[in-house]
Amino acid sequence: MTDRSIKIILGTSAVTGRLEVDGGMDVAVAGPLTVEDRLLIRELYARYVWAMDSGDLDAFVDCYAPGGRLDVGRSATTPEEIRNWLADFLKDSAFPGSQHHYNQFVMEGDGRSCQVRAYWVRLYRLPGTTSSQIIAQGYYTDTVVKVDGRWRFLIKRSHPAHELREHKFGQEPAPTPPVGEDSLYDVGAPLF
Amino acid sequence: MGPTVEDRLEIMELYARSLWALDLGDADRFVATFTPDGTLQMRHRYQGREDIRRFVELFRQRDFGFPRAQHLLTNLIIEAEEEAERCHSQAYVTRIHRLPGQHRGNCQIIWTGYCTDICVRWERSWRFQSRTLRAWEGDVTAIISSAGRGHDREAAGHDR
Fold this sequence. Notes:
The structure holds 2 protein chains of 2 kinds. By secondary structure, chain A is of the alpha+beta class. Chain A is built from 3 helices and 9 strands. The termini of chain A are close together. Chain B has one domain (5-139): Nuclear Transport Factor 2, Chain: A (Roll). Chain B starts with a helix and ends in a 25-residue tail after the last strand. Chains A and B meet through helix 1, strand 6, strand 7 and strand 8 of A and helix 1, strand 3, strand 4 and strand 5 of B.
């Protein structure tokens, strides 16, 4: 890449500039994780559970990046498997009526890839009442990536709450997405 | 183009102000989170600030959970309309009630639902033009088929 001519086009922010390489492809430069990124990542989690708890299979799958992986109970590594995972999960006796809630977000990464851990709690609305009970709790250790300007899950991994005592945060270094014309991500190769 | 960071944070705080006011029975502050023609749809519909004020007063006098309950708001999604100063927002709403006493386990979840709202910028601040709160049942979960329910989640390998 260093042999190719590179034209730098600055965006509205010094940290979100873009590169245009010979082939005309734009890739985002990996700036720091911004406040806006953090808000949009939180909103990704909100969209994810709205889709899950209301049974919207398309919206659920859409929360995953190409090549995204789900490791919750069993693994799903293709859009079809992820769709089937949710379809199966919705047969759970606590659906409909379940709500998942996230909080205590910790995010570490940059403007193209980020590791996130967060608590989750699952509530179940008891039929015929207004009351709910907490029926499960745990935490996620996920990797999210920015694809076409949108944050999506590359890896989603759930853990039961007791693993917290063992400090099993389960996080691995985020994989480096491919760079070049085959790239599906705003990968942002090093400038020089 | 979505709402700006500042807009998002202001709308998040609008929700916080609204729920603080409601849980404390503060009609003035609750009403102030609405535009003058704002609407609140719960079991009944309240239109305009005086009507919404009436709701808060009834809530304070008659609601079984008051004054020992708190509303929690999570999973907030904010989407801007083409008109930059108008957003749709939706979130989960949970109400937790604290029973008298200091013993453990004295808090119960007494309501789970969701809100679908319209926020607008009015006099330089974000306010609710309409709020709708519904229980987590009915249309919102209608897609989930009742066929096949009763599946044991542990057998399915899910703990979540």
